[in-house]
Amino acid sequence: MTLTPSDFPHDVAAVREATDRLLVSVSKLDDAAIGEPSLLPGWTRGHVLAHLARNADALGNLLTWARTGVRTPMYASAEVRGRDIERGAGRPLAAQLEDLRETAARFDAAMEALPEERWAFEVEMRNGVVERADRLPLRRLTELELHHVDLGVGHTVDQLSPAFVDRELYFLCSVKFAGHPELPPLELRADDGRRWRTGRADTGPEAGAAPLVVTGSAAALVGWLTGRGDGGKLDSHGSGLPAVPPL
């Protein structure tokens, strides 16, 4: 299935489904497991869950901005964001689940409240990136899916839904890494024959040079580009895989 670059109704539904999957996985943990390391260096599972809860409210702030036209930043500051994650990381399972459910409900309400005529409204994310309002559910979906993997509870990149993998590859190639000066020109080839171009613009001394071809499953490509895989399942056709800039 090929999805358009912006598909607000689809992404709203996908966020709900991904939230439910995450809650099922987290509900199987216990207080001790919450304090164990996640797959993200320096973060426990509690840090990941606290971040996901705060991110729901932060993206909800941007949806409110888009709906009302009143500037509403994601976070009060980078320091406040960091403190809130640290403060929430050590909570027991019951508190983590309650926070996840409540913040997910608020984000869901914010998505529902955004009228179609405001979908194209642009807001500024915390890193200065300007984003359309109708792409914010996809941003949330990415947080849910990738951090579900980061929890280290058996949800792997290979288990990501094909629809999400398609949307994420489009975003990574057409938005995130398109023209990125730290990534050489790439041609990504999925096993099913689909192709994507991304990376540094083909200008300067390298103008006219063939892009580095990387082949593998769409899920493995997403895993590599997002730092959730080492590229071991990919074929770079005799060339070494380049380092991918962090998200």
General description of the model:
- With 247 residues, the protein is mainly alpha-helical.
- It has two domains: 8-155, Four Helix Bundle (Hemerythrin (Met), subunit A), CATH 1.20.120.450; 162-225, no CATH class.
- The chain is built from eight helices and five strands.
- The chain has a three-stranded mixed beta sheet with strand order 4-3-5.
- Helix 3 packs across helix 4 (78-89) and helix 3 packs antiparallel against helix 6 (136-150).
- It starts with 7 loop residues before the first helix and ends in a 22-residue tail after the last helix.
- The mean pLDDT is 93.
List the helices and strands and how they pair.
Blueprint: H1 8-27, H2 31-34, H3 45-68, H4 78-89, H5 93-113, E1 122-124, E2 130-132, H6 136-150, H7 162-176, E3 186-190, E4 195-198, E5 212-216, H8 218-225
Parallel strand pairs: 3-5
Antiparallel strand pairs: 1-2, 3-4
Helix pairs in contact: 1-5, 1-6, 3-4, 3-5, 3-6, 7-8
Q: How would you sum up the major sheet?
A: 3 strands, mixed
Annotated CATH topology of the largest domain: Four Helix Bundle (Hemerythrin (Met), subunit A)
* Assembly status: single chain
Q: Architecture of the largest domain, CATH level 2?
A: Up-down Bundle
- Estimate the global geometry from the Cα principal axes: globular
